[in-house]
């Protein structure tokens, strides 16, 4: 019994601290405050990263809503602590489980983008967590099932059906009126816009220029600046390449880009843009003026580099008769 208790204590100590380090300035880690919980209870997972912004850029790990039979109840905000040149980011995540048994909190992968050199991947340790079922008192007798009881009805019991019927009637009337209106204007001449239509590249460059003229980050509004910049790129990628990215996160967009034959060679440009944008929007860090301008330059470079190439076939000269 004592040996088993000692083993549990050693396991708990190992669970409460797990860190992976990269060099001296780049470190990531995770720890959990409970080795076991009861079904429906919550455990706190603490994720931490140490980073030097002067030498590299850090992409925060993607934490899914569910993993290995566990569910994420809440993702806390990412707190920032600066100590000299080193910035420490911390996030608290509440997790729970509704299936009893041994589950595993997976490794979370961070990406470090050095100012020079190849990107590096850092990962935290994984943690086992035991979800125990709710204890049942087997000494108490089972309670019998009660007989069926008659219930008196009133018109209020049908109120929901009455409202639903009126709503359905309104929908039918709306459809009939809409069809009549469409027949009325069916034979009217259609509006045809004059002049050439904007291409996705022209539209993206125009909207980027308009965003640049607003000077949002110069007026202490960097979050709105980077939100609009990323939205312009999302719209451009949908119109230019036909990929649906409006509802995706930065990491999910980069995964699609890596698999797209026309965009994969420009993945690093988009990685730099999304990193600066996520830093301004979520990490509550203030990018430098150079980073604000660099994000705009990277966006324009991406649009220009992916402009469709128009191939003009040479015309054969007329033959002499």
What can you tell me about this protein's structure?
- The protein contains 7 helices and 13 strands.
- The strands form 3 sheets. Strands 1, 2, 4, 6, 7, 8 and 9 form a 7-stranded antiparallel sheet that branches. Strands 3-13-10 form a 3-stranded mixed sheet, with no helix packed on it. The protein has a 3-stranded antiparallel sheet with strand order 5-11-12, with no helix packed on it.
- By secondary structure, it is α+β, with helices and mostly antiparallel strands.
- Helices cover 36% and strands 23% of the residues.
- Helix 5 packs antiparallel against helix 6.
- About 3% of the residues have low confidence.
- The chain is flat, with a radius of gyration of 30 Å.
- The chain has 2 domains: 131 residues, Immunoglobulin-like (Sandwich); 106 residues, no CATH class.
Taken as a percent bin, the fraction of beta residues is 15-25%
Q: Which structural class do you get from the secondary structure elements?
A: alpha+beta
CATH class annotation of the largest domain: Mainly Beta
- Number of helices, where a helix is a run of at least 4 consecutive DSSP H or I residues: 7
Number of domains: 2
Per the CATH scheme, the topology name of the largest domain is Immunoglobulin-like
Euclidean distance between termini CA atoms = 108 Å
CATH architecture assignment of the largest domain:
Sandwich
Largest sheet descriptor: 7 strands, antiparallel
The secondary-structure element order is: HEEEEEEEEEEEEEHHHHHH
Which segments are poorly predicted (pLDDT under 50) over 5 or more consecutive residues?
Answer: 12-22
Helix content: 25-40%
Average pLDDT number:
83
- What is the number of E strands? 13
- The radius of gyration over CA amounts to 30 Å
Shape: flat
